[in-house]
Structures are given as C-alpha cells and as structure tokens.
Design goal:
single chain, Rossmann fold, 27% helix, globular
C-alpha cells in the first residue's frame, strides 16, 4: 500500500471519531485516571525515517523528537507509581498542512506513530508488536479550513504532539493489566435485533 493510501485510510478513519467527539475539550487539570504502578521512565522518540504525506510542509530534522518528547513527558510524567515503564515512539509519517490551498481541498494536519511499552524491572517489552496510532489536528475556528492557512509549522507540530500524547495515554489506559490492575471487562455482545433468547 502506498504512503498516500496509508494516510488516506488512517486520517479519514480518525476524522470520523474526532468529528463525533469534537465537543469534548481536553482538560490537562482533570483528575488522573488510575494507571496502577505506572511511572514514566524514558520516552524515546525516533523521527529520522518519518515519511511526509501529500500536501505537507517538511519538518526540520529532530523537531518531532523534541516536541513529542516534551508533550509525552508532560502528559504521562504526572503519574508516580512504584514501577518504571519506558516508551519507544517511532514517527511513521505526518502531514503539516500547507498554506494557500483552495478551501475545497484544504488539507488537515496529521501524525502517525508506532508505540512500544517496556517494563524496566523485567527489562522486556510488554507490547508484542508496536501499536500504530493516528491523530489529526484539534478542531477549532482556526483549523476548520486547514491549519496551513492559520498556523505556523511550529504550532501545527505542537498541536499534533499534544494530541498524540493524549492518544498514547488513552492507549495505555485500555491495557491496565500491564500496570498491575485488573484487565478491563470484555464488552458485552448485544443480542441480535428481534431475538428474545428462545430456542
């Protein structure tokens, strides 16, 4: 699958979720959800093989590494559990919307990364395979027509890095058993419509 196809599938699937949740504003001061014995050790970000998507500005070398590291530490460094866990984050690709594109094809900025989680005490990786996550820029009056028209490249990257840090946090919360908590209950399947359970 081409890079363009990967971006198109990933970005549009995430777009549907974000549109549904665009009314919910992230609150960094909200109480932390329990995450067991988690305490952040290293957040190692690698961005030297990041691919640039269509209609994108080019990020300066090392900029994703710096910005993502800062935002992940800000988001997850608030936990003070009894064990240390490390994160390996590889930037797979990105789009930083360019300015001057007509409204009808105005692109949205996007970031795709792969995340691995390591247990420091056991010196082993928890995640069998890296988890790929995709985020788009936050929706606001400044981004509905594409952030390339209203924001600097630095602001776009900060926005995406903040959203990715939150996405990584949510991913970890979905796997509490990694951090000494009971696993989340299995989703209950609803009976087929029209079925009353009789044989």
């Amino acid at each position: 699958m081409s890079l363009y196809s990967i971006f198109r599938v990933s970005v549009f699937s995430v777009l549907l979720v974000l549109v549904a949740a665009c009314g919910k504003k992230y609150d960094p001061n909200a109480p932390l959800e329990p995450m067991g014995d988690f305490s952040l050790g290293y957040a190692v970000v690698v961005d030297d093989q990041a691919q640039i998507g269509p209609l994108s500005r080019k990020a300066d070398p090392g900029t994703w590494k710096k910005t993502l590291t800062e935002e992940v530490k800000k988001e997850l460094g608030r936990y003070e559990g009894d064990k240390i866990y490390h994160l390996g984050i590889k930037v797979d690709g990105y789009v930083l919307a360019i300015p001057g594109v007509p409204l009808v094809v105005s692109p949205k900025s996007a970031l795709i990364v792969s995340v691995s989680v390591w247990d420091d005490a056991k010196r082993e990786k928890i995640t069998p395979e890296p988890k790929q996550l995709t985020v788009l820029e936050s929706f606001s009056g400044n981004t509905l027509i594409g952030s390339g028209l209203t924001q600097s490249k630095k602001r776009q990257m900060r926005n995406l890095s903040r959203n990715m840090a939150v996405a990584i946090h949510k991913y970890l919360l979905k796997n509490p058993e990694w951090f000494g908590l009971p696993p989340l209950p299995e989703p209950v399947e609803k009976p087929a419509q029209g079925s009353n359970g009789d044989n």
